[in-house]
Amino acid sequence: DRSIKIAPSILSADFANFSAEIQAIEAQGADWVHIDVMDGHFVPNLTFGPPAVKAFRPHVKTVMDVHLMITPVDPYIQAYADAGADILTAHVEAGAHTHRTLQAIRAAGMKAGVALNPGTPAYAVEHLLDLTDLVCVMTVNPGFGGQKFIDMTNKIRKLRSMIGDRPIHIEIDGGVDPKTAPLVAAAGADVLVAGSAVFKGGSVDNPEVYGANIKAV
Ligand code: DX5
Ligand code: ZN
Fold first, then answer.
1. Catalytic annotation on 173?
2. Catalytic site residues (predicted)?
């Protein structure tokens, strides 16, 4: 269905308290949980890998949406399937064979996502759409939470028309807040990742703040 989903990014959560943070955002209305995997190579930051994602699994009751900002991707696909990822998203810029990567993600039993950096045009995924369940449009240069939103509404509109009536999500990642969310939703996005906008001002001791932030987005 095409109702808007909010996927808080735990990149902005308390890293020493992931289980309670995940529980809090889900109790407060998160539709999916977005997990940013960074390798210090494809992006200039490091987060966590398959063992951590596997440890998150029993705490995520909704959908575990894993965003790989790593290269290479293919040697790790099975590890993320074993860790329990529901959706595994790879960047189209991460290698020469995204077509093969998306096939392998589906063959491993997950939904396949493909992400585009801000500088990458919509047509980079045109011939991948039949292998894709989700297109992630980056509205920041990936690597860090809390960056300024880059307007990609033209790209989102182009993707929506390229997708036609195929059941493919358009996810927006980066700088989503109460001001930018309506712009991307109007352009055709249906999954909104939000890190700092959801976690700011809150904690597991006052989870209502997360709820208010999720509603505001
Ligand atoms: C950026 C990550 C995002 C990030 C978004 O590289 O992919 O998911 O957590 O954070 P905000 O919402 O703070 O821009
Ligand atoms: Zn992300």
1. yes
2. 36, 173
Domain count for the chain, please give it: 1
91 annotated as belonging to a binding site for a ligand: no
Q: Is 188 annotated as a binding residue?
A: no
pLDDT by residue (tens digit) across 96-110?
999 999 999 999 999
Mean pLDDT of the chain: 97
Say yes or no: CB of residue 174 within 6 Å of ligand 1: yes
Measured at the CA of 109, the angle between CA 91 and CA 124, to 5 degrees, comes to: 25
Supply the pTM of this predicted model.
Answer: 0.98
137 lines ligand 1 (CB under 6 A): no
Q: Active-site residue among 31, 36, 65, 190?
A: 36
C-alpha R_g of the chain: 16
Residues of the chain with pLDDT > 90, as a percent, come to 99
> Is the ipTM of this structure higher than 0.90?
yes
**What is the rounded CA–CA span in Å between residue 9 and residue 109?**
23
CA 209 – ligand 2 centroid, Å: 22
| Closest residue CA from atom 9 of ligand 1 | 145
What range defines the domain where residue 193 resides? Answer: 5-216
Q: Is 118 exposed, middle or buried (0-12, 13-18, 19+ CB in 10 A)?
A: middle
pLDDT at 1 over 60: no
